[in-house]
Amino acid sequence: MEWNAETLQFLSQCFLNTLSPYPEPRRAAESRLSEASDRPNYGLAVLRLVAEPSVDEPIRQAAAVNFKNHLRSRWSSSEEEPNAQPQSLAPDEKEQIKSRIVSLMLSSAPRIQSQLSEALGVIGKHDFPRRWPALLPELRSSLDKAGEGSDYATVNGVLSTVNSIFKNFRHQYDTKDVAIDLKYCIDNFAEALLMIFKRTAGLIDNIGVSGGQAAILRPLVESQRLCCRIFYSLNFLVLPECFEDHMGEWMGEFQKYLTVKFSVLEDGGGDGLALVDELRAAVCENISLYAERYEEEFRGYLSGFVETVWNLLVSVSASSGRDRLTVTAITFLTTVSTSVHHTLFSGDDILQQICERIVIPNVMLRDEDEELFEMNYVEFIRRDMEGSDLDTRRRIACELLKGIGSNYRERVTQIVSSQIQNSLALFSENPTANWKHKDCAIYLVVSLASRRAGGTSISTDLVDVESFFGAVIVPELRNQDVNGFPMLKAGALKFFTMFRDQISKPIAMALIPDVVRFLGSDSNVVHSYAASCIEKLLLVKDEGGKARYIAADISPFLLVLMTNLFGALGKPESEENPYVMKCIMRVLGVADISREVASPCITGLTSVLNKVCENPKTPTFNHYLFEAVAVLVRRSCEKDPSLISAFEASLFPSLEMILARDVTEFFPYAFQLLAQLVELHSPPISQNYMQIFEILLSPDSWKKSGNVPALVRLLQAFLQKAPHELNQEGRLAQVLGIFNKLVSSPSTDEQGFYVLNTIIENLGYDVIAPYMVHIWASLFSRLQNKRTVKFVKSFLIFMSLFLVKHGSQNLVDSMNTVQPNIFLVILEQFWIPNLRMITGSIELKLTSVASTRLICECQALLDPSVGTLWGKMLDSIVTLLSKPEQDRVEEEPDVPDFADNEGYGATFVHLYNAGKKAEDPLKDIRDPKQFLMASLANLSALSPGRYPLVISGNLDPTNQTALLQLCSSYNVAIV
């Protein structure tokens, strides 16, 4: 893409249209930019547009965002990632971008600067420092110059860029290469970092934290925050000598920023307080790092920081909207509490104060919590129930208690238990006004519970679970007002869910109808927690792994349960509630599904499916939806086959809509459900299915790699249920074309064998014989050119299946048609040495029986001239049957091959409930060892004295011993 007036006009108009509020011009512009992005020098042209002062800033900002995203997908070099999609930038374009971006970033307006800084970080992740040695000197020179002139727009631009580059050290292991890169960064930037940090500290001191103008102080505080983040990155892996030597200077400023008040910023409203708190939070993360990793060197500063952070927390805990500072400060105290310096918290009065002045204020619900509960239930549950809430005040406060309790367990338990009782007493005095105190008590019990080693059961020393459940939780669950005090109801349901193992079955069964009732709550959190509670109860196992709750337990209220679950999906904001859909899936997997239940369920599920097809946006919900459909079809049709036609009538329009509307995200699911329906269907296959079969045979369907496993699954179903239709209108040739493409690539060869094996199992030899030469030629070509361990094992399984289905003679003759005597070559070079690598009970039986039949029935191996080959084959069979898997299998990792993937690459997600059942092709043979010994005894009886000599000359001594033991076990003799 050449840079000229025409390019400038084209890109400017496109980026202007991407800002349009109307979808048509916006989508058209995005499409044109996507096409243009494949042209050489596109990234460089966009960067030049960003630098063009005659273009309006919103357009240049949109271009900067596009430039950043373009680099994210295309910067990684083709040498590193040869199969990276889309195509990487050319080396010349990269060098030109690198030569321009730093100066442009530093001279740009703040919003554009932030985008270019991130783009520079993307380049740095791949090229810095080894392929971009000029970057750090250029940044340091710019920093020194800007610092001398007090140009803090440029200073912060440089620091922001350095921060985005150096933060990679926080996510790497301390390897030799990383150590070299880190040393380079420290040698070339640590001195400049300290210099600008001290210079900025002096400017702040001269202004005075209480006086001065906010506009002057703001960039200085931001500069110190960025210095702290860079400090964290450079100290993350090791304590560099230059930082240890200047520790006093750093720590003195850190202490100051935790104690002084920047009145002009903090009292001025707006984001001034947030900016200062971000600086303090960065300081807390730095001192936490030192307390945890560099304990000895940091020892002299520790007690002073503990006192400072303590005092800071007491004031912050009473404030709203200061979560990040609170969390990082408590994290520091938690780190100290689990270290050798835990004695700083040993006094009874200190423990009491921690509980009263830090923990309880942060565990008590705040207005922000209530707002989140009402306005964003997904985020509330993510923080509250799913264990990913370490970034919240409530959880981190409890983590502090756990940390202190690791050394002072009894005292912490006593203090917290007393606090729980006080909170419940306050609630009893005035339940309406003091409901948050009860919530606090429940939260403390739940959050401080611990998981028993080696199990899923939860325990607590704070309360007696059964009595607490009965006195505190049950009244909330029994409350008939499902919408009153919803946060209390949610806490009660969470407790029930958490301690479900300890709640006896009779008590739980009496309460399940109440939980079902809460599915009707208007609160998204409450009906989500009710659904989760039921779903988790159905997973409870008693000793011996037996399910505690079975179909008979939920039958009395099954219809109302399903009605309420589907009703919950009708609530605002819960149309795609993953907790509700997961519960539907779990109930259908446990319940006894009658026609009366199945009919409304399939109607409800297909209605939901049709809606989500319009705009798929919640992957977890969608997965549970398809699993629910699959389990409903499987369990109800197994019980009542007459339901199949009703399910087909309901599901087919939805599945056809997915294919017709090109809802690519759902293709893998749709193909798996169709496979399930085909397998349940009795021949002959209806015309509806045959139309799907034609889509299945189209080469376009196979271009998206995410579809392949599901397509293979569906193709296998057709091969099993419609073998006659397969051999009409050239379809078999088309299927073998699909096999040929799949088997040619290491990423899909296993899927290719699934297709081939199903053909071999379901079609007569007279049908497949004309194609065998081409099949063998494809397999031999892969064997010669791209052999992998996985391919050889699949190849061996295929040959074994072919033999047991169509006989050893057809196997030998068809292979030798490709090349004379190729069978014996394959046997010697691949079959015999790799037989020991076979795993899986069905596969082991199949290959051992096929190998036994070879040496006992195949004329090519019964010739005395190949006696050595016969003996080696028997040696491999005995190894396979007598040695445990871990003693004979040495897995060699195969190098993955990235298949070409055209268009949208939907990830394949396996549907557990629509899975293909593993079928045993040798059901009449129960014991492969017995089959081997009986076959050998019969064979040796025909030629007495011949085979003992072959055995003694070719079998490993341990295998000879194993063979004698087998003779004894099965009471046979090899004569």
TrEMBL record:
Gene Ontology biological process terms, A to Z: protein export from nucleus; protein import into nucleus
InterPro entries in alphabetical order: ARM-like, ARM-type_fold, Importin-beta_N, XPO2_C, XPO2_central
Transmembrane regions listed in the UniProt entry: none
Localization: Cytoplasm; Nucleus
PROSITE patterns: IMPORTIN_B_NT
Principal place of residence: cytoplasm
Stretches assigned to the Importin N-terminal domain: 29-107
Keyword set, alphabetical order: Cytoplasm, Nucleus, Protein transport, Transport
Gene Ontology CC: one annotated term: nuclear envelope
Pfam families documented for this protein: CAS_CSE1, Cse1, IBN_N
Residues annotated as signal peptide: none
Listed Gene3D superfamilies: Leucine-rich Repeat Variant (1.25.10.10)
SMART domains reported for this sequence: IBN_N
Molecular function as annotated in GO: nuclear export signal receptor activity; small GTPase binding
Region (Disordered): 74-94
The keyword Transport is annotated on this UniProt entry: yes
Family from the record: Belongs to the XPO2/CSE1 family.
Protein name, UniProt field: Importin N-terminal domain-containing protein
